[in-house]
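Now for a sample.
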Amino acid sequence: MSQGLSIGDVVNVNVVMSPLASATRNFGALLVLGSSDVVDIGERIRQYSTADAIATDFGTTAPEYAAAALFFSQSPQPATIYIGRYAQTATHGLLVGSTLSAAQQALTNFTAVTTGALSILVDGVAENLTAIDFSADTNLNGVAATLTSAFTGVATVTWDAVYKRFTITSATTGAVSELAFATTPATGVDVAPLFGFRSTDGGRLVAGSAVETLLAGVTACANASTDWYGLYCAPLTAAAADADVLAVAGYIEAASPSRIYGVTTQAAATIDPAQTTDIASQLQSLKYKRTFVQYSSSSPHAAASLFGRAFTVDFTGNKTTITLKFKNEPGVTAETLTESQAAALLAKNCNAFVNYNNATAIIQPGVMANGYFFDEVQGLDWLQNYVQTAIFNLLYTSATKIPQSDAGVNQIVATCENAMVQSVDNGLVAPGTWNAPGFGALQQGQTLAKGYYIYAAPVSAQSQADREARKAPTIQIAAKLAGAVHSANIIINVNR
């Protein structure tokens, strides 16, 4: 039967979905870098949202957990933490098996095997295991132990009940330590499929590593993920040497995207005004604005708590920005300092959680190594990313092009305007007097009634080269930081 002519000949309708806009960065995500043998260097970094989950993986004695517990103890509580791994000591080669389904985890799959075989390379040497008998094993840990015995010392096998997978670990360490995927044995029942050890099963190989520097571990985590903003290092043994801290601080200072590095020091020289070789003094002399130091005689991970309080700020809210001074550090014992010791810390731009003689304890002063306030560095990083993302989304999601005309530039200016309005709403920017050289119609000494001023040169003023390169004219924004009150001077005049 004829269907007739297509209605599309008369009315043609196309549905076009707009592309999803790019998201802004998370300026509340902390990376805790450690060397506990939980996250392997192949995985390198793992995300968590609770301290309990970290305790399950690492236990409660690991330095990674100690730092994370302070981070999550803050009120309000931050939401996201990453645990990273660096090779503080040489690491073992691994074959991490595939995640097993509930059916694949059934013990009977293994106990039915009495003449098992596994053919695999360990450190480049063929290991042909035969006569493997799992019939007496009562759980998957027992299955792993049986296979370990078959390796006769060259490797161990473990069952990870949390991630539902088996792992083979070479007995050696360093660059020569490595596994290969299992191949089909010449005789016996091939057990590789039961363990997920074949190349087709979805497991992964992790080569062993020689000892890494702390900086190498940080850069590896930066290459593995751009999702973290703050960095705290929690070495397995003693605190990192000053040279390691300085190397990482130098890297963070120049890193892109922007990040912040926090250091805890317990060196008594920090509170001695006559000492200038402590890590706080060294970082101050280098004028790093992306590294901060906290002194704590009691807690080796106090800076993680400071991170936790700062990283609760929601920059998309109203009046949500904070100053770190006057805040608390749950789980950290406050320092009782003399005036001279407190002055030494302030002179070195070193933070501390200190007792006052009115039965209170507060963080002070809340600064980076160069004296910039932490909240302003974090806030301006957010503002840079917020404006950048907004302009990118304008260009990316526009159904048609943004013309290279004054009207097109005005669209960009309007987008900048919306971003700056949010910076005023959250409390980062506020009305005030502009005390720097002016541009456009802005003059030094002029009041910024909105807290900001945006200027774009006319398109007609562009060079021909810039026009041919399809560049927008440079847009300049003047923003007045809201700041925060950290002290007050009160005079009471009394007359009778």
